[in-house]
């Protein structure tokens, strides 16, 4: 099947896709360009003022024509930046559980939540209300499923309390989207540690150390 793809110099060329599934897939160089664009926009969106597409193109060393073929509007690019961050956040849950105990995996995931909240804040402030509402609606399910994987592993080994569900955690961490960068730096780690402590399974106190109630 014929299609169009970018070459490294930003030109459009015709190529033939012979993938096993018979569908279209971007050439490796075009995918690299796309990834570079998204990463550059992710960094620049935190800068003061409106994100400029020509600044993104310059930051990743490509022509504006190449950028516009991937993302014809600023809003399309910002939406992809957010979706990319959601995908990484969701994937991190399984990656962390593969190498850490459940409670430690949850702690590591919370660290990624703080970084995700930063990107979310800047993207949502820069796009139309209808766009961010749609993005938020479509991300809620995957994020909730990632939280549930972490909680389920913790319940199974007894480290996480059994009376908390993914919805509870999503509500507790949603306040991050209300904090600016300075507040996230100052309060985020401490408050996420408080949430993590609240998720720990209650342990019975050893005999002789119970409170007397005085």
How are the SSEs placed, and which strands pair?
Layout: E1 2-6, E2 12-16, H1 28-44, H2 53-59, H3 64-70, H4 74-99, H5 102-126, H6 129-157, H7 166-173, H8 181-199
Antiparallel strand pairs: 1-2
Helix pairs in contact: 1-2, 1-4, 2-3, 4-5, 4-6, 5-6, 5-8, 6-7
What do you see in this structure?
It is a single chain. The protein has 214 residues and is mostly helical. It folds into two domains: 2-70, no CATH class; 74-199, Tetracycline Repressor, domain 2 (Orthogonal Bundle), CATH 1.10.357.10. Helix content is 64%, strand content 5%. It is built from eight helices and two strands; from the N terminus they run ββαααααααα. It has helices at residues 28-44, 53-59, 64-70, 74-99, 102-126, 129-157, 166-173, 181-199; strands at 2-6, 12-16. A two-stranded antiparallel ribbon has the order 1-2. β1 (2-6) and β2 (12-16) form a beta hairpin. The protein is elongated and about 60 Å long. The termini are far apart.
Characteristics:
5% strand; 2 domains; disordered C terminus; single chain; Tetracycline Repressor, domain 2; disordered N terminus; 214 residues; elongated; mainly alpha
